[in-house]
């Protein structure tokens, strides 16, 4: 009796294990589209940046397939086969481009297919799609390092400029710190104001001069005439507008 119960338990354990195994295969296969009808397109990269077989492929933010295979063609070319669902074949055009992205900042690598133009033909089985080469993290870090070094140099130069200004070195520093230069500048401005006032006085004297009085009178009359003509034109336009409005109201 004890042996029979042991055999039953062993059989149930094996059966449960087989069910879990089949269920796991089904779930994994569904996620990786192993049981879905697919079609294949290819792309080539110079660097796949850690992309692996089985990574997802996205189109418009939706998972539409998986990476089928990755093969090194030569020292500058890596071929990547894309297995895509046949249900999205009508959206994959010959001018679509393939780029390498990632699941978040530190997630797994994936492929991203950009939409093509509306009038482009559909991609065929085995069609080669153009690619967008990825930007390596090392290159980004190197660029940031160069930017940081340049920022440090600029900061040092600005600090030196401020030190020179505060110590009165250079033209701008002397202008700010040297009181003599400031006094001379004030004196220059004062002289300029006096010169302007003298010029105004000379102009008033010239207007009163017998020789130039007729010239200035003509200038004043011409200015008054222009002012009157402008005022008259403005009044005529106002009257014309008023007549137009009255006519529109009557109609």
Topology overview:
Elements: H1 2-31, E1 38-45, E2 56-59, E3 62-74, E4 77-85, E5 97-102, E6 109-114, E7 130-132, H2 137-167, H3 170-177, H4 179-208, H5 210-250
Parallel strand pairs: 2-6, 5-7
Antiparallel strand pairs: 1-4, 2-3, 3-4, 5-6
Structure notes:
It is a single chain. The protein is of the alpha/beta class and 251 residues long. Strands 1-4-3-2-6-5-7 form a seven-stranded mixed beta sheet, with no helix packed on it. It has a domain of 98 residues. Strand 2 and strand 3 form a beta hairpin. Helix 2 packs across helix 3. Helix content is 56%, strand content 20%.
Record keyword descriptors for this entry.
single chain, 251 residues, alpha/beta, 7-stranded mixed sheet, 5 helices
How is the main sheet built?
7 strands, mixed
Helix-strand pattern, N to C? Answer: HEEEEEEEHHHH
Kindly name the structural category.
alpha/beta
Report strand %.
15-25%
Radius of gyration: 43 Å
Distance between the termini: 114 Å
Shape: elongated
Strand order, biggest sheet? Answer: 1-4-3-2-6-5-7
Percent of residues in helical segments?
55-70%
Q: Regarding quaternary structure, how should these chains be classified? A: single chain
Q: What is the number of helices?
A: 5
Low-confidence stretches: none
How many strands? 7
Average pLDDT figure: 78
